[in-house]
Amino acid sequence: MDYLKYDYCNFPNSADTKNAYLTMATALRCSGRDILFAACNWGEKSPWDWMRSRGAHTYRSTHDIFDVPRSYADIFKSQLAHVEGNAPGCFNDMDMLICGMHGKGNVGLGGCTDAQYLQHFAMWAFMGSPLIIGADIRSLDEANSSLLKNRGLISINQDEECRPPFVLTQQFQQDNMYILARLLSGSRIAIGLFNTCEDTEKHATFVVSLDDLGIHSESHKALKLTDAVSGEYAGTVKDGMHVHLPGQGTKVFIGEIIDG
Is the pTM value of this prediction over 0.90? Predict the structure, then answer.
């Protein structure tokens, strides 16, 4: 056995949650095998505050995901306050990926569009969540098979420095607009723009200031941007940029700090 998910089903109200996970972690360490311990208590009792100290390698931080856009969006929003819990040795598991399910499986409801699956995958990659495929890989369509193998998004998730993301500017949490940034190895910065509005006709303008990334105009530095999804060059910016996105729209850039 290489991976154990220790679930929370029927856990007695009178029992000690923290001690139960510590007991299992100790048992696994005494097994003589290197076993990944995936703790799962659905975010009950604030596991981001203590699960690392109890020996878990990952911990489920939310209730179950379903194959509808509101489900992944609500999970994403609920974990923005807990991103600091992600670090080497113990990672926040925001539940499995629903990419490519299209309403099939035991969490299938209405399904999502390919644009919504892209947004979901980009969110999980950016947040540093374990990327666990939930769809039946034998019946994945080409679009989602390619998405699940996207090198740019996976490189953000798997960056060797394992730094958590941070919300770039608080005011953009209004009206379903979220701007996140994440410091990467090699003097690079990832920027994620997410419009979670369910109305795809409702466009929004995202404003990114390099000052908020610690790159001040006096530094004479700029960001050379690559679109993380397509891998294409996306321009070089000095002071900031404006990005227009429709509802359910997503843009993720990887920026290399250069002399400007």
Answer: yes
113 pLDDT above the threshold of 60: yes
Is-catalytic flag, 67?
no
CA–CA distance, 181 with 164 (Å, rounded to integer): 9
Under the banding of pLDDT at 50, 70 and 90, the label for residue 161 is very high
* 108, burial (CB in 10 Å: exposed 0-12, middle 13-18, buried 19+): middle
- pLDDT, residue 106, reads 76
Q: Nearest-CA neighbor of 126 among 213, 257, 3, 253?
A: 253
Candidates 7, 49, 175, 199; catalytic one: 7
Is 64 tagged catalytic? yes
Distances, alpha carbon 152 to alpha carbons 195, 206, 235, 244, 251, in Å? 20, 21, 16, 21, 12
- Cβ(236)–Cβ(258) below 8 Å: yes
The angle formed by the CA atoms of residues 75, 34 and 21, to the nearest 5 degrees, is: 50
Of the residues 16, 49, 64, 211, which is catalytic?
Answer: 64
Distance CA 25, CA 45 (A): 18
